[in-house]
Structure formats: C-alpha cells, structure tokens
Predict the structure.
Amino acid sequence: MNEVIGYIVKNHDRYLEELESFLRIPSISTDPEHKADMVKAAEFVVEQLRAAGIQDCEIVPTEGHPIVYGERVDSPDKPTVLVYGHYDVQPVDPLDLWTTPPFEPTVRNGKLFARGASDDKGQLLTHIKSAEAFNKTRGSLPVNLKFVLEGEEEIGSAHLEGFLRENVERLAADTVVISDTALFAEGVPSICYGLRGLAYLQIDVTGPKADLHSGSFGGPVANPAFVLAEILASMKDSNGRITIPHFYDDVVELTVEERKAWAGLPFDRDAYMAELGVDDLNGEAGFTPLEQVWARPTLEVNGLVSGFTGKGAKTVLPSKAMAKVSMRLVPNQDPDKIAKLFEEYVRSVAPKSVHVQVQDLHGGQAWVADLSHPALVTAAEAIEKGFGKRPVFQREGGSIPIVATFTELLKAPTVLLGFGLPDENAHAPNENFDLGNFYRGIQSSAYFFELFGEAGKRAS
Amino acid sequence: MNEVIGYIVKNHDRYLEELESFLRIPSISTDPEHKADMVKAAEFVVEQLRAAGIQDCEIVPTEGHPIVYGERVDSPDKPTVLVYGHYDVQPVDPLDLWTTPPFEPTVRNGKLFARGASDDKGQLLTHIKSAEAFNKTRGSLPVNLKFVLEGEEEIGSAHLEGFLRENVERLAADTVVISDTALFAEGVPSICYGLRGLAYLQIDVTGPKADLHSGSFGGPVANPAFVLAEILASMKDSNGRITIPHFYDDVVELTVEERKAWAGLPFDRDAYMAELGVDDLNGEAGFTPLEQVWARPTLEVNGLVSGFTGKGAKTVLPSKAMAKVSMRLVPNQDPDKIAKLFEEYVRSVAPKSVHVQVQDLHGGQAWVADLSHPALVTAAEAIEKGFGKRPVFQREGGSIPIVATFTELLKAPTVLLGFGLPDENAHAPNENFDLGNFYRGIQSSAYFFELFGEAGKRAS
C-alpha cells in the first residue's frame, strides 16, 4: 500500500485544485435556473472518474437532473464496492451571511469554504481520488468499483430509485459506501450506523381573499398568520413531545446498551452550546442531546412567511400565511403515514374561518445497520489506518433516504464513512470542509478498498 | 348654493382627471426610494390648493417628508375650518394581486382603482375641490380655510405633532375636518365619532448564530420560528381574549345605549363574510363583529418571516424569526404603556434558549367625539344634503392617531366625514374609490363649509 498512499500524499495539491473546480459549479438542484450547471457538474464528475481509470462512464438522463454512473469491473473474483454520492448542493440564501461567495472556494485555517464542500462534493471525491491512486500506481484496483452519483439528493432523489430498480443486476455489489456524514468530532473518527428519516410538508393558510386593513377588519376576521402560529405551537407540548395523534406509535425505542454507549461519548454540552451561540438546550424531556438528534423524532419549522416583512410598519391583516415543516423520523416510522397523520392533525385543529392546504414535499425512511457485518468491521479497520485512531460508532440526525432503498434493492450492507465535521455548516452559510479530513478520507477510502478486496478474496 | 353645486357637477370629469394625476405619483412614505415622489406629491397638492384660491401655501420641510400648509383667511368674522389629510400612501406589495398597476389609475364599474384612491388622496381632494367651486363662482369662501396635509400618516406621523405644537396660534380653528374614513355601507352615509388607537411592534427571535441543518441539530437546539409561533399563539386564549397581563386594565367598556344603537345598524353578517371570502368569523367572545372592530382592542400579526420560504424543500433550522404585531387600542388605553406590557410579556415567555428583541415601531391614542357639539350637528346636516340621506353615527376600527393630538392642541372638535367604503381595500391590493361618493363628498364638503359659515355667523 505504500506506493498508493505515497501517490495520494504527493498529489494533495492537485486533488484540492480539482475539488475547487468542482465547487465552482453552482449545482443547486432545487433552482430551475441552475439546470445547465447540473449538467456541467455531471460532466465534471465523468471527467474525474475517467481520469481515475473508471473508464466505463455514462450520464443517464432523467426527468430531473442526470445520474452519473461509472464502473470498472475487472474480475468476477474481486468483491464489488458501489460508491454512492451526490453532486447537487443546497441553495445558498441568505447570501449576505457568507464571508466569501459560496461558489468561490477559499481556504482559511485549513478549511475549504464553499457550498457543497463537505455535502457532498468533497466527500464523494475522496473515493474517486483513492481509485485514481490505485490506478496510477498499480494499474489495477483491489475491488470492482461502481459509482452512482446523483444530482437530486437535496430535493428528495425523485429519480434515483427508478434508476436503481431498473438496474438492479448491473449495480449488484457486496457493499455500498456512502460518504455524506460527519466524524463524531474533530479528531474522533466514526462510523455512522443509523440515520433519521424525513417527512417534509408545507402548510398554506388562507383567510380573507385579499390583504385587509388590520384596523378596519381586525377582530372578527381570522388572521392567517396568527392561526398558523396557533397550529404550529399546538404541535408540541411543554415536554417537547409532538402532539400529533399516533405520531409515536411505531417508534423503536433506544436500547439500554445504546444509551450507555452514547453516554460515554465525549459530548461537551457547554462547547456545543458555545459553538452554536445558544444559552440553553431544549428538546424532548428525558433524552440527552445525542439521543434527541440520533434516535428521537423531531418537528422543525424550516420556513415561515406572511404579510408585510419589509422595513417599517404596515398595518395589514394578511390574506395568506405559509410554513414549511419537517419531521425527522426514526426506525420504524413510515414517512407516508406520518405525512398523513400531520395533514389530518392540521385539518382537525384549523378553525372554519380559514382554509388550509397541506402539501407533502418529500420524505424518506430512517435506517440502522448491523454492526457485526464484515463490511462494517472492515470499514472500522480502514478508518483506523486512515485516521490513526479507532472509530466510534454513532448515528446521525440527518436523512439519506436512499440508504433504505439500497438495503432493500441490492441486499448489500451500506457503510457510512463520514469525513465531514459536525460544525461545517452543511445547508447553511459558510459551508466548509476540513482539508486534513479530506486527505485522511482519501487514504481511508484506499485502505477500505484494499482491505475489502482481501476480505473478499478470503471469503471466496 | 345652486351655482356652487352646479359648478361641481359641471367639473366632475376634470376633478377625476386631477385625482388621477395625483394618484400617478407613487408617494409611498415608508420606502426611502420614493423620497422624490413625496416631494412631487407635495408640490402637486400645492398647485391644487392655489388653483382653488388657497393662495397662501407653503411646503414645510421636516426631517421626514414635508408637510403642506395652505390657508385663506379672509375675515376674522368667519368661523375657521382646518382640513387635515395625508398625501402619502401604503406600500403596494404583493404587486401580483393587483388587477391593474397600483399607480396607473383605472376606472372600472364606477370605481377608481389605484393605491391611495380612497386612503387618502381622493378623500382629501374633496375639500380642495369644494373650495375651488366657491372661489370660482362667488370669489370668496363661506369660512376661513386652513389645510394641513402631511406625508407621514402611514408611517406614524412622526413630524406632524412637532409642526402642530410650533404653530398652535397659526392653526387656530373652530373645527377640524378629516376625511379618511368610510361610509357605514354603500348608500348609508355616516359620521365617525370614534377611532381605535395603535401599538405596533416587531419581535425578532434569534436562536443559533447561523442557520443549521435541521437533521443534524433538530431536537436539542431551539427553533426560533417555532418559539416565535409559541410566543404569538400564547397571546390569545380560546375566547379570543388577549393574555398579556394588565392589557385590559384601562379599557372603557361600551355603554348599553351604544350596543343597542349598533345592533340596529344594517350589518349583514353573511354578506360581510361573502365579501371577504371567509366561512366563519372569530374574535373576542361575547361581542358582535361591529363591537369587536369599533370598540374592543385586538391583536394582529401583520407579518412573519423565517428560514426558507422559496419553492421546494430546504431542511434548515433557521437562525432567526421575525414577526410584526400590532394591537388596536380603545379609549383609555395608552400606546406606550401597552407597548411596555407587550415587551415584558414577550420577555417573560421566551425560553432561555433564544434571544428576543422587541422594537416599538409606532403608536397612537384612541379617540371618541362628543356628538352634541355644533360642528357634528352641522356635519350631519351637510351629509344629509350631499348624500340625500341622514347619516348614521358609527365608529371606525382603524387609527388616525393625529385626531387625539388635534383635540389636545387646538381645543376644537374633530369631525370625521368619511367618503370611502368599507370594501375599498385601503392598505391592500386593488384599493379603489367609488366615484359617486367622490362627487357626493365634494358636495357634502361644500354644504359643510356653507352651513358652518352660517352657524358661525349666528354664533357671533
């Protein structure tokens, strides 16, 4: 492995430059104005794959953004690793909170700032770059490699599942590797074995057919902004428990062992609060912050708008009010069922004086992995070699809905090798990626391919 | 009076054209970009006054928008009428809900559509045009006339009070006339003898120092949008009563006589709901809609914004949430005291996990008139002649904070001669002014000047 690792170290600067080129493409999947950038990003990924020796590449058109597929299958005797990642990024507003522009990558203090730096362009590139290192040094790869890189992860992966279902044989693999999560903390590498699911909805409340003068009509006429506030506020009780009937029915409770293991992780409550700039933590009573984020369902208001929001005072009784609300789900909650319960609840509490519309914008299943599977055992070894430290086993509060789909379709275990950090502002202004973790991630990927290749040989 | 009324009738079309020219000036006082338009509107008003024989005019600069002052004092023997109005208008958003552009006046079905048509450009012009009719036919006016026309009514009249205080002697008058309210209903002319006051505040809730990923942080970290919804929702109980401690302490309750008189007014609940496009009315339990609007304090959310409000789904835990909230006040509530109670309440219920900022944006006193005063008796006669119908006595839910100031400084009774209609969308898209009421308003103004002139002579 020395020559492979040596190649990686020697090429750090070029790897960084290539990541910066990737980050300069504003591939915001939710914004139709960036449709051409999505194609540009897909083409960039194909170039990178080809340069890494993954010659068999294809840009697969969908009704949304294209899927990049690439493979190098040298021998039926080698085990096969499928790498999944996404080349699309989140929107960038509010733009004025970025220190440097989101699509002009800038290195400060060993961190690369740009939208998509860690979520997920930087992380997906680690596997392409480790493949390149094998190819350029040995002329071969220790495993068969397949890449599925989509452009719709941030908007619900609408067309990925169809692609996977139509290509189950072609995609056959012994394990799926995804790098789209974070280390437990700086210097504490980890393997993520659980993700929360998601149900994301929009509530539109309409009162009077037009905006009214709040003096002439304030009183008898229901105010949609106030009604919306009432509906939202009623969704949690004073213990932070969600009040939607039957919401908790299918929740798998934490085991005593998990709670004990997590209590032993180096979580610094004061540092956590200081980093976020808050003076107190809330959440569901009876659970620690890690338990709340990793294994308890939550409800968040993601956006709110109604009436006059400019400078000064406009005495309007608004006609409409809108909220975007998402719920993070845990194993066994079904996103469709939760979305239905949510809509029924909103309709049951809305007064007759307003009309409500509830739209289900997207959803995804939660997931937990079997820690005893060889792919996870090998991954832990690879991380230990790449980072020089044994990883901890953690879960993640975010959602990668496609993990559940991979598990169902490919019957192969998914390994979440996260190289990000928890404070890298994924989905927020000043997103960044620690360059040390970028390089250690490439090495960990290389060790994983090597060790999984050997494990596969032993098994055959 | 025949020649005066004849002149008004003959000049209807030109009066309309001049009103349209006035409405083409986008004099939005709250928007700094329209500063030049404010000056243009003030200059337009001066031209109109001069053309009406009010030669002694002045544009008085203030630190905000200028005040237009004009007077014609022919004889110390004549009683003096001071007309107050405002040439500024409300903002126009949401622009897409206007059928025709807000500053391109358009007549449809006898109604003139434009921002400011009834609030207050069309209404203030009635008095200038009736003065013109006297001047052009008789060469004199039956009363001494003074005009105070400001450009900051829609943003709290910050500089008017100073002007009034500095010019108390110059402004001395036997009555103040304001046309900035509405008839009780189409075909039911009225005199308004009460107005609600106002306390308008803004709440800013800040949670984490930056927007966060709602998956990775949702749970322990307080969501400012949710906290804001909770704070707002807690401000009213299930009876629609405001829960802020001591909020109702100074409220003057309605008399049995007033409740009886108002119950006799032709209020059609179903037509009211149909016109607004709502299926039910709410408001404070135990009060009719007229009572709620005219004589009970209310609390409205005028605007709300937080997080992601674009199309699609962005899984953000927002850093900030903002609400604009106003309370309509009734006689004897003090806006400063209410603003203080509001701020104390917000601070008392906000959790330690967020920071709240409360700004007092503006306020005004409520007001009620003495119905037995000669100015009000004369006004009722003038309306009867101008509209061919005896007016009813009503109150108004809106605020004209300056009325309380006039009462205090000039010791003269204020007469609210409203020529608008309740459904003319003041402060909303598609604001309009009924042209029949515009013309009848000009005639009523002329009769008021004539009758008040005679009443003054009789009194002297």
